Amino acid sequence: MEKTKRETKGVLNLTQGNPLSLLIRFSLPLIAGTIFQQLYSFVDTIMVGRLVGQSALAAVGTTYSLNFLIIGFVQGACVGFAIPLAKKIGARSQVGFQRYFWNGCWISIALALILGISSVLLSPALLQMIQTPADILKPAAQYIQIIFFGIPFTVLFNYGSAVLRASGDSKRPTLFLLVSSFLNIILDYICIALLDGGIAGAAWATVLSQGLSGGLNFWWIFKRTSLLHDSRKQMKISTYHLNVLMKAGLPMGFEYSISALGAIVMQSAINSMGSLVIAGQTTGEKIRQMLTLPMESVGMAMATYAGQNDGAGKPERIAAGIKAGLTIQLTYCAVMWVLVLVGRSLMTDLVLGPDGGQAAVLSNQYLMIMSCLFCLHGSLMIMRNTLQGMGYTLQAVLSGIGELAGRAVFSWLAVRSLGFVGIALANPAAWLFALIYCSIMVTVYLRPRLRTNTSKVSPAKI
User: Fold this and answer.
1) Side-chain half-sphere of 327: how many Cα atoms within 13 Å?
2) Calpha distance 170→164 (Å, rounded)
3) How far is the C-alpha of 366 from the C-alpha of 175, rounded, in Å?
4) Are 121 and 112 in contact (CB under 8 A)?
5) What are the residues whose beta carbons fall under 8 Å from the beta carbon of 460, sequence distance 6 or more?
6) Runs of H (alpha helix) within 312-419
7) 8-state DSSP, 103
8) Which of the 8 DSSP states describes residue 194?
9) CB atoms near residue 262 (< 10 Å)
10) Which 3-state string (H, E, C) describes 249-282?
11) Which of 93, 54, 433, 415 lies closest to 268, judged by CA?
């Protein structure tokens, strides 16, 4: 691929240099982005919990599994669509990159329309199906329907970010996310505190700010890089490229959704325990997500790293990247455990206020149990994203089945005997089952490549 000053600004070539240094450099902007992304979600939680009340917080919390099911599919699919692009970057094929980019756009448009319409129509029935308590059913439906109405903006943001990351640029998506995060906080205050918009105001603030960050990603791709220079000839629909993109993206979307089915089973168990337990678990889970999202960012960096090096035919660098990624993750997990140990009450009080009562007790218990097992989540992000970056997206789907099983088993145990402790152990059990499978698959697929160094003959070759 021809390189220009305009194109390479802020872009990392992940096929050369020290893997640990490269992963840290590439991950840092992604980590900053996820922190800010979770920050405005956390601000939503704080404002809803303090300004609207615990009942409204429970209404938002009970929509999490459905949100995960649909939005998670979008996120996974968009990351998958970017795998062929990363491979073409590694192979230095600009025309190939452009063909996959444009066909990815056409798939993304279709995905946004289909999911947006169907999810808005079906969400009230789905909330009833997971036993949402009657006292929070109406506000929960109102909140999630607005979020689903904004799915086109979600697709715009996730596909644009994935394209930039595939090209080696993790800084620009973070910068644009930072801008939209501050906008979201401002809109939260206006819609909830000043206009008394309740949780609907929080939903609209999230949708509008995400639309802005998505637009900025595409503005940068088209106006500030040469990635699509003279690409008009590559805009036509190609059944071959569509097929490759769907094989890469749809399994990853389904992997997220399969994991979400486990979250739905878990949410149903939580809902059966009442609004107080929902509020406690929602608070703890929001804090947990903020603490573990950086691990997912390192995982995204690993997917791009593995994709570029697979395209360049360097399996030994993929193996070195796995070791470097695990080092980063386990170090981070140790720091987060200490943070939860000393600061969980303060974080919980920030959401619920000093009078959180039993909900605060449950949140603190949830955080303490989860933090002891963060290492499972961090390791899973490395192994799963390595598989995805190498093109083995079907294996990622199968690992999602392991997550589904883990959440289902412990949700059943929570209702039967373990109570809230079972709820707290459900996610770690899911991570463990998936990690075992992904670790075996990485070994199975990578070891022969290391022996023969013939990664160009990969079944995922594109």
Assistant:
1) 11
2) 7
3) 32
4) no
5) 310, 390, 391, 392
6) 315-352, 358-371, 374-390, 393-413
7) H
8) I
9) 28
10) HHHHHHHHHHHHHHHHHHHHHHHCCCHHHHHHHH
11) 415
C-alpha dihedral sign at 412, 417, 423, 429 = negative
Question: Could you tell me the two tokens for 289?
Answer: 């997500």
Q: Which two tokens stand for residue 143?
A: 């909140």
pLDDT by position in tens, the chain (length 462)? 444 334 445 567 788 899 999 999 988 888 877 776 666 666 667 777 766 766 777 777 778 778 878 888 998 899 889 889 988 888 888 898 999 999 999 999 999 999 999 999 998 998 888 778 888 888 888 889 999 999 999 999 999 999 998 888 888 888 898 888 888 888 888 888 788 888 888 888 889 988 998 999 999 999 888 888 888 888 999 999 999 999 888 888 887 787 777 777 777 778 778 878 888 888 888 889 888 988 988 998 898 899 889 888 889 999 999 999 999 999 999 999 999 999 999 988 887 877 778 888 999 999 999 999 999 999 999 999 999 888 887 887 788 887 888 778 877 777 677 788 888 888 898 899 899 999 999 999 998 888 876 544 444 444
Residue 372: phi, psi to the nearest 5? -65, -15
Q: Please give the structure tokens belonging to residue 461.
A: 């070759």
Enter the pTM of the model. 0.73
Spans of all domains in the chain: 16-455
